[in-house]
Design goal:
This protein has helices at residues 2-25, 27-53, 83-90, 94-113, 122-137, 157-162, 165-175, 194-203; strands at 66-67, 72-73, 150-155, 184-188, 212-214, 220-222, 228-235, 245-249, 259-260, 264-266. With 270 residues, it is α/β, with parallel strands linked by helices. It folds into 2 domains: 62-137, no CATH class; 150-266. Strand 1 (66-67) and strand 2 (72-73) form a beta hairpin. The chain is globular. The model is unreliable at 1-29 and 34-48 (pLDDT under 50).
Amino acid sequence: MLNLFRKFIFIPIFFSLFFTSCSSLNPFSSDKEKNASYSKHIIGEQYRSVALSKFFLQEVPEWLNFSESGQCKREHKLKFFNYEKIRQNFGLDYPKAVHFQNLYNVAYRINLKKTNGQFLPQKEEEKIFFETLEKVKANQSIFQSPAYPVVNLFWIDNLVNRANKRDISKLKRFLSSRKGGRGYPIFISLCYSKASIQRFLKENRFENGSIKIMSLEMFSIYNQKNKKVPHFSIHLDSFFSKTQKLNLYIPRGRIPREFNGRAKIQYLAR
């Protein structure tokens, strides 16, 4: 009777151990684990992509992507960010949020060229995002404010749009004049990227190396107070010291609402 009882206990233990060992030796079990791990990885990647998407603003339809003030169509393949969420999540102030958007777009455009201007995989966009964040945290930027006591900002959309040689020559003469030489020149645009403005400078033989650029990549629908406004704008004072004198040269007519700050409006002599 005792022997029978021992056999009764032994048999289920034996089969339990046998099937456990078989499952560990089963080649399909490791595949299942790998598939499960891979699925978790994919879900993680998708979650990360969705998590990052909240920082991007929706793309404006091409037909609507127009600056009324500049009377020009904004360059379409640019990425604009939700400054409110970027600043809250990563502890950035207004200038650093602007530099982040600027740096990201330059890196995005460089990488986009490798795909013949089609699109970038999500993984590549994520890489650019976090690399850009590291650069901004390390105080890197594309636009660096000049240390000159006087800064002359020139709104150039009208010149780029019309490509009027007479107006372009007039600006070049002013830059080389005594009055123009008193201030550091910066070209500012509501519609064009830095790359487009650089092409404009080269084609029209400006002294490219001595002119800084504040391009469309630096504009946003968020102001310096992190509030959404119904138009693209930039707060100029945030990029210059209080002791610097700012002159903003514009074509004659309505003063554009997109340029905020203490810059004094000036006109080039006719």
